[in-house]
Design the sequence.
DNA sequence: GTGCCTGTTACCTC
DNA sequence: AGAGGTAACAGGCA
């Protein structure tokens, strides 16, 4: 669920909630495997007494700069953070809880248990594997062209690959390809100059739209995305193709189709996004 | 109940 | 390099 706009929203809300500057007075782990590369006891020992120096985002990672280490959190499918007071009961899906020096607690829930916490003095060992940050100044048209160059691969799996562009997931890739009128199976090396320009603009546009709308919340179930303050995002109203299969394209009135690409449900308009190279 | 679906990524083999 | 499968998991849904 959480892609770049959702993680960005979480970071902003944590900063607005004044978590920066607080000390971690205690920690509790309710699911050991949420903690990567060390035991939960080691994790608690290391993190307790550290101060939250900064809260940032890199790709889909939350980056908590602490006084001695950096805590990286990847939410995967169903990870979410909530702020509560310390008497708050432990929810069945709660995996980790940090007790903060002002009496509040940072609760981490993860229904499907795919999310991971990395506490490390060397965050670059993980973050340097990530590709371009699509809302940064470094993400220029030239940078996108360079990163596409030499790849012979379908465009959708390429855009999902965090080694090239960091932060796009299934929703925003489908949205960006629809906006750019590019079929999800188009081989990267067949993209024309004007299509790359459109793709570049579309990636930035759909991500900014997601951030402005404080993220995308699909269903109403607890597993869906909610921000730290418990708010739902609004970006589901702005989606043009994702989960609109069977409905009419908002641009040309054709019926939106759904196929499987790279094992992911993939939505596109067969009229606006023709695949000239495979005749689909 | 059964089987299939799900917004992520790592790891394996071909 | 890249494609395809499986796995980690839990729950919603037909």
Sequence:
């Amino acid at each position: 669920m959480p892609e770049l706009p959702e993680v960005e929203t979480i970071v902003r809300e944590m900063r607005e909630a004044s978590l920066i500057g607080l000390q971690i007075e205690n920690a509790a782990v309710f699911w050991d495997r949420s903690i990567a590369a060390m035991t939960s006891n080691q994790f608690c020992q290391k993190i307790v007494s550290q101060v939250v120096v900064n809260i940032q985002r890199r790709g889909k990672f939350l980056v908590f700069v602490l006084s001695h280490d950096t805590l990286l959190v990847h939410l995967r499918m169903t990870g979410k953070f909530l702020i509560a007071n310390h008497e708050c009961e432990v929810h069945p899906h709660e995996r980790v809880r940090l007790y903060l020096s002002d009496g509040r607690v940072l609760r981490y829930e993860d229904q499907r248990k795919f999310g991971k916490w990395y506490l490390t003095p060397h965050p670059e060992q993980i973050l340097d594997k990530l590709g371009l940050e699509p809302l940064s100044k470094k993400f220029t048209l030239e940078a996108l062209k360079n990163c596409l160059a030499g790849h012979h691969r379908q465009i959708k799996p390429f855009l999902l690959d965090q080694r090239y562009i960091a932060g796009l997931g299934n929703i925003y890739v489908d949205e960006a390809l629809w906006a750019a009128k590019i079929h999800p199976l188009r081989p990267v090396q067949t993209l024309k100059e004007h299509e790359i320009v459109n793709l570049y603009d579309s990636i930035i546009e759909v991500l900014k739209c997601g951030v402005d709308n404080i993220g995308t919340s699909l269903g109403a179930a607890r597993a869906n995305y909610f921000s730290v303050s418990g708010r739902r995002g609004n970006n589901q109203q702005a989606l043009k193709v994702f989960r609109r299969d069977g409905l009419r394209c908002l641009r040309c009135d054709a019926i939106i189709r759904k196929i499987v690409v790279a094992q992911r449900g993939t939505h596109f308009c067969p009229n606006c996004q023709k695949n000239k190279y495979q005749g689909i």
About this structure: The CA atoms of residues 252 and 272 of chain A lie 7 Å apart. The first helix of chain A runs from residue 4 to 16. The mean pLDDT of chain A is 93. Residues 33, 76-78, 93, 110-114, 150-154, 157, 219, 221, 223, 262-263 of chain A lie near DNA strand C (CB under 10 Å from a C1').
